[in-house]
Specification:
There is one protein chain. The protein is mainly alpha-helical. It is 69% helix and 0% strand. The longest helix is centred in the middle third of the chain and has 34 residues, at 78-111. Helix 2 crosses helix 3. It is elongated.
Amino acid sequence: MQDSGTDKQSTAEQPARRPRRQLRNPASRKRANRLTARLTKTEYDEIVAAARARAVTAARFLVAAGLAAARGNLPVEPTERRDVAVDELAAARAQLSRVGNNLNQLTRLANSGEIPSPDDLASILSRVRSAIGRVDRAADGLVSRRTA
């Protein structure tokens, strides 16, 4: 029984150690801003499951995913990229339609014996080149996204 008394004395003589802890959110990294999102049950379940699979909270998962997308480390949804390309092609199609109308007017002038002015021809040629460039860029975008 004497041994237990000496154990208490030796423990009392040791200096008290304070556990070392790193601050969870130092002042420079404190997150004071808040966003709120409304999710369907399916979206919520999917996000929570993905967060659990990575052993993080749903909030941490959403922050990481959002920042990755904002910084260009995460691709935008394929449907969104396709929609952007389709919108670009639709705009180019409308521009080509206007150019075609102008070409028809110039053709009528030429068939009636009148010579179109060089300014009209230069303007239409410029529009054609611009429209072709837009179509090419949109098509290249679709092709590069398909292979990515």
